[in-house]
Amino acid sequence: MSRAALLVLSDGRFPAGGHAHSGGAEPAVAGGRVRDADSLADFCRGRLHTSGLTAAALAAAAAHGLDPIALDEAADARTPSPALRTTARKLGRQLMRAARATWPSPELDALAAARPRGAHQPVVLGLTARSAGLDPVDAAHCVAYETVSGPATAVVRLLSLDPFHATAVLARLAPELDRVAEQAAEAARQGIDALPAASAPLLDITAEAHAAWPVRLFAS
How far is 203 from 108, CA to CA, in rounded Å? Predict the structure, then answer.
């Protein structure tokens, strides 16, 4: 197992398209729910323990070797917002391209063939982690970090928030990231039926509204 592979996969410069998405931060800023570093921390914490936990568990399960097609169906069932399902599959397709170029494997090829329009991003990420020789906890850590780093980076642009303050938010959340990753990996060891289905209804509602905006800085 290579820890360096985890660094490559979690690097914001990995060409998987995540930089174009705010993780719900753009509508949260527009609605006044994220105004500064403290409210950003609240937003990230809520996202981490709901949709973040669910996504991390799906990734851990894929890295554990569970059926990726069944996991993709499980991801669909856990994503009630059509806008977020579309986003997850678009990001999954972009990640798949980068993953197959970086860590080619028959498992990635099979999933790409079965889901030509894109599988859910957490499932692709978990299978990518497996192809890179990483374990389920690594995959869960990667998704948990993405869950909060994406909104934090977006808010720096949306509010001109001091990037030092945004990074401090991520650092203070580190112990919770560890706990969520461990919880997700433990659920993955128990099978698909044990995977969490934590949800954030406000993220679903604002995702649908955001998708209809005529002008927006981020794709989601």
Answer: 30
